[in-house]
Each structure stands twice: as C-alpha cells, then as structure tokens.
Amino acid sequence: MAMLEVKNLGISFGGLRAVDGLDMTIEKGELYGLIGPNGAGKTTAFNMLTGVYKPTDGVIKLDGEDITGKSTIEINKAGIARTFQNIRLFSELFVLDNVKVGLHNHYRYSTIAGILRLPAYRKAEKEMDEKAMELLKVFNLQDEWDYKASNLPYGKQRKLEIARALATEPKLLLLDEPAAGMNPNETGELMDTIQFVCKNFDMTVLLIEHDMKLVSGICQKLTVLNFGQVLAQGKTSDVLNDPKVIKAYLGE
Amino acid sequence: MTVMKKKLNKTTKSNLITYAMVVIVYIIVQLLVSGGAVSSLMKGLLVPLCVYSILAVSLNLTVGILGELSLGHAGFMCIGAFTSATFSKLTNGVIQPAGFRFFLAILVGAVFAGIFGLLIGIPVLRLKGDYLAIVTLAFGEIIKNIVNVIYLGRDSHGIHFSIKDAASLGMDADGEMIIKGPQGITGTPTDSTFTIGIVLILVTLFIVLNLVHSRSGRAIMAIRDNRIAAESVGINITKYKLMAFSISAALAGVAGVLYAHNLSTLTALPKNFGYNMSIMILVFVVLGGIGNIRGSIIAAVLLTMLPELLRGLNDFRMLIYAIVLIATMIITNNEKIMNTIRRFLPKKQAQPVKEETK
C-alpha cells in the first residue's frame, strides 16, 4: 500500500484556484520531490497535507487512513511531520529542548508529577534526554545541545528543524525547501543527511526544493506543479528532460 | 550521560540560588526584628512584600513563560481574597486549630481563583497581544465591581445572598453580615504572618520553577516561541495556554488569601484590586526581567520598599520613585550600558530560560 495517496486535491481562496486536481502517490521509503515555479502551489499543497488549510475537494490518505480535513495536531499524531520554508524553531529554548518538545506525545507524565518531581517525571525525562541526544547526534548537533536555538548558525537551524520533526516519530516527513539559503557545501551535507534519515529511520520523504542539484541528486520521483496544476510526474530523470518542464520551469 | 548531569546541575543550581535568596532574606529580617532594628512601619510591610512577590512570580508565568500580556491579575487576587475571607468568617471557631483553617482557606482561595482563571481564559485566550491585554483589564475591573455589590449574611436559617442591599437579605435579628457590599468583609481573622508569607513564596517558586522545567512547561514555552511549529509537532495549544493561565490565576489567588488575612477589614477598592494594582504587578515583572522568576521577586521587594525608604524626603519621594523606574527601564534595555555594567560584575551564572523580551 502506498504511504501517501492524494486524489484530486484542490483548494480555492475566493476566486483563486491555488491547487487543482493534484494526484500523487508516494510509496513507503521513497524520496519524492515536489517542484515548480514560485507561486505554483507547492507550499499550499504542504499546508493541506498537514491540516493548516482544509482542502476544498479531494482525498488525502496516509498509510490507508483518510486524514482529509483533520487538524494539524491529529495529522501529526497520524504520522506526518514537517519543516517550514521560513525556519520556525522554538528560538528561546535550548537545542535539546526543541527536540524534547517534538517527543512531547511519546513520553507522558502528568503536570502534577512534573511539578512534584515524582519518579515518573525522572524516568520519562531521562529517556527523553537520551532519545533527544541520539537524534542530535544524527545531525551532528550534540555539542550545541545547550545553545539557544536562535544562536545556531543557519544551516544547523535547518537540521534542528528536521531533528525536531523526526522526534514526533512520523511515517512521512515533509521538508519545505530544506536547502534554501545554504551554500553548496551545506547543501551537499544536507543531501547526505536526508538520504541517511531515509535509510536509517525507514522514512518516506516528500520535499519541496528549488535547488536542482539536490533534487536530481536524491529524489527518485518528482511532481512538477505549475499554476496549481500538475505539469509532469514520474521518475526524476524523465521529468527533468520533459520539454514542458524545461520550458515552464527549468529554462532552455 | 555526563552532559545531562551538567544540564541538570545548571538548572538545579539556578533554582537553588533563588530558594536560598528567599531563605537568607527571611533569616536576616527575623534577626533584625528580634534585635529591634525594624520600625513598626517596616514590620507592617513584611506581609505585603510577600503578597507582591507571589503576585509578581505568578504574573511572570503568564507574561514571561506563556508570553501573553494580562492586565487583570488583581482580579484573580480579589477572588482569592474574598472567597478565602468568607470561608474563614464562616468557619472561624468551627474548624480547629486555626492554623489548619488558614491552610484550608489558602486552598479555597487558590481553587476559586484557578477556576475563574479557567473560565475567563477560555474566551479571552483566543485573543492576542493588545486585545488580550484590554479584555483581561476589563475582566479585572468586572470582578472588582461585582464583589462590591455582593451582600452575604448568615443566621439560624442558613446563608443569605443578595446583590441589592443588606435589607433584602431578610435575616433574623441574630443574623451576622459576612460580606457587606462596598464595605466588604470585616473581622477576618488575621492569620497571615511573615513566616507563612515566606513559605508561600517558596511554594509558589517551587510550582513555577518545576513547571517550567517539565514537559508541560516546555510545551507552554514552545507555544510562546512559535505557535504554528508547536501545533505541527502535535501540541494542544488551547490546553497548555489554559493550564498556564489558570495556574497563574490560582497563585494570584494565594496572594489574595495572604492579603485578606493580613488586615481585619477587606474591601475591594481601585487601590488594592483595581487596574492600578494589575499594572503595578506588571511593572514588577517587566523590571525584574520578563521570564526571569528571580528578578520578579527582587523587583517586587525593591519597588515596595522604595517609597517607604524615601519617606523622609516627603514630597519628592514619588518623583524619585518615578525617576528610578524610568532609569532602570532605559538602562536594562540598552545593550551598551548593560555590557559596561556586566564588566564589573562577576561572570554570569546559569541563565533562566528566557532573559529578555523580543
């Protein structure tokens, strides 16, 4: 069964049809790219997948479960986690605590236990610390665990956002322009990290990206959006050589 | 893991310094009092100091940790004061010993203020920033004005309640008035002592500091820093906002209990439960550093003492008070001046999670 199945997804803002008739199927373990010119509706599609916007029509199924129109929180619990185009970290919290917020729904104890420091608190906090540290190590952030998130350099903030998303133990990870604002070295490093996550966490990834080096380097399949509609879809190499895509997006 | 231990030590150390600070001040004051070095005027200020410290710490939970501006904090204090004073009047002599009755009164005040915090929080926490500030300001005034029209009495038939006047209670001749409208409650047992006040400060600190470093506290701060991201990792925004707001209200209620049992007459005036008081508490929080719990206490103590210490200067004391406030705001918000000051201070110890406003 496909991990994500999107059928005829569409949304209108008044008279503007931002996304129209989007069909997309992502298999488990796939690294899938969503590309297209600015204003094509990529982020809008992401926002529908994560429940920020309610789709006007269409169906979204995650691992067979219908999640259309559910709230952001329910969708996160169902197994979709995301990062944002403009980084959204908990800027005043420690790097470690950012990841621990991601673990929020997986290690529970009551507020009373937290205030009174009961054994449940100590046990859960210890496990959370260990789990969060493990995740930070994957992204090579373990030495900066006690930095305020806003004090991290840009590239590391992007990584921390991915680590926080992974902490919610998703089935599907959505990355919104993960390489935006990165230099070629950082992008190269990021490509390795995404592939590592895909393999080691058994993760399915859907990403929006403008950096064609990253897209052609790691994505197995692509969907190209233009003016809200699907322009082309299929294997990365086929799509990138499609004359329609070259004309509308890549440039001749 | 050694790293984890380091982190634990850092926050524990910072918390211990705060507790120690309160305990040391308590010991010093007790020594001074027994040595006869404290004027009766200053002695009268000791319990209010505790009241203001608790209020400042509890408001900091809303303003600094949750990141929402509330200007109705005195309203919750008012609820705590009146519910607990009523409870004490009703049970005075019934529940023994008096210490236990006062303990129950504290719980009553905290629970009622917490419930009202929840009820008011449900509609108002949908708003943000200035709008929230204005609505909480209004609710604070509403609470104060409602309290001013309540008449409550007790006679052999039970408890009578009215919002018109004392006569419409229709009590027997042996009836006893408990709340007398604008004249409030008289004859409340004066149970509050400086020692109880300090214990309550420590309890407040314990609750707030431990909450901040727990799972719920992290969720609250995550909402403050980025609501959309907090939602995206599955945090229930409404639940944690209400939790912070009602805990903050309940602690303000505790301060109200302490206030009500310090004086034998309790009336709801603009001076003690009006918006002036709410803004006064906000001044403590801002001056002490938004999100800085220890700073709140220091600011509350200094600003309460200052007008009294300057009493000798008569007409000029409020002028000096205002200048001190303005100067502190300018200095603490100026990076250059702060850096110069920091050079003369010993190296900074572990910071609280949030030091300044954005």
UniProtKB/TrEMBL annotation, chain A:
InterPro entries: AAA+_ATPase, ABC_AA/LPS_Transport, ABC_transporter-like_ATP-bd, BCA_ABC_TP_C, P-loop_NTPase. Residues 4-252 form the ABC transporter domain. GO terms for cellular component: plasma membrane. Coiled coil: none annotated. The keyword ATP-binding applies. The keyword Nucleotide-binding applies. Keywords: ATP-binding, Nucleotide-binding, Transport. GO terms for molecular function: ATP binding; ATP hydrolysis activity; L-isoleucine transmembrane transporter activity; L-phenylalanine transmembrane transporter activity; L-valine transmembrane transporter activity. One of its GO terms (biological process) is D-alanine transmembrane transport. It holds the Pfam family ABC_tran. This is Amino acid/amide ABC transporter ATP-binding protein 1, HAAT family (TC 3.A.1.4.-). It comes from Coprococcus catus GD/7.
